[in-house]
Design goal:
Helices cover 24% and strands 23% of the residues. The protein has one domain: Beta Barrel (L,D-transpeptidase catalytic domain-like), CATH 2.40.440. The chain contains 3 helices and 8 strands. The protein is α+β, with helices and mostly antiparallel strands.
Length: 180
């Protein structure tokens, strides 16, 4: 490869990195209002092997989404920081971030006490900051292409429009079950 091509590729890589950093600071914009109570979920169920997330009210699905997961999601549940696996188990949505580096985000209460104890027994930190989120800010044009591979560090990713719908339908403290 010629020197000029290397310089061009480096400039493109730096531009993408800088664009992402700037867009992360700009944020997601205003979050949507809450959906009417009868349209809100009281349980989220994630089927990792199917790359599908379902919002339920009682036993009735109110919405379903195709998802991307952690890049090592098929290798079992999250066990430690940096393993790029998506957790498995029962958690809850314990807080939300309207100014996330990705388009809106809902925090999953991983690690549980059992997750922390398991990681500590093995000499690892359990990790954290596992979210349901849209695409990185400024990358919304990618839309459904992001589903071609698992690209997160253990999070659950959807399109920006889907994230707006999820944000409106999922109140804080909604339980989430993540199954293999």
């Amino acid at each position: 490869m010629t020197r000029n091509r290397l310089i061009l590729l480096a400039a493109i890589a730096v531009s993408f990195f800088a664009y992402t950093k700037v867009m992360a600071r700009i944020g997601s914009g205003s979050p949507p209002p809450d959906a009417p109570l009868e349209q809100q979920a009281d349980l989220i169920r994630v089927y990792k092997s199917e790359r599908r997330m379902v919002l339920l009210r009682g036993d009735i699905p109110v919405s379903s989404y195709r998802i991307s997961l952690g890049s090592a999601a098929d290798e079992g549940p999250k066990q430690r920081e940096g393993d790029e696996k998506t957790p498995e188990g029962r958690y809850e949505i314990d807080w939300r971030n309207p100014r996330s580096m990705a388009h809106l985000s809902l925090h999953i209460s991983y690690p549980s006490l059992a997750d922390r104890q398991n990681a500590e027994l093995k000499g690892y930190a359990p990790g954290g900051d596992i979210m349901i989120h849209g695409l990185p800010n400024g990358w919304g044009l990618v839309q459904n292409v992001h589903r071609l591979w698992d690209w997160t560090d253990g999070c659950i990713a959807v399109t920006d429009q889907e994230m707006r719908d999820i944000w409106a339908r999922v109140p804080d403290h909604t339980p989430i079950e993540i199954v293999p």
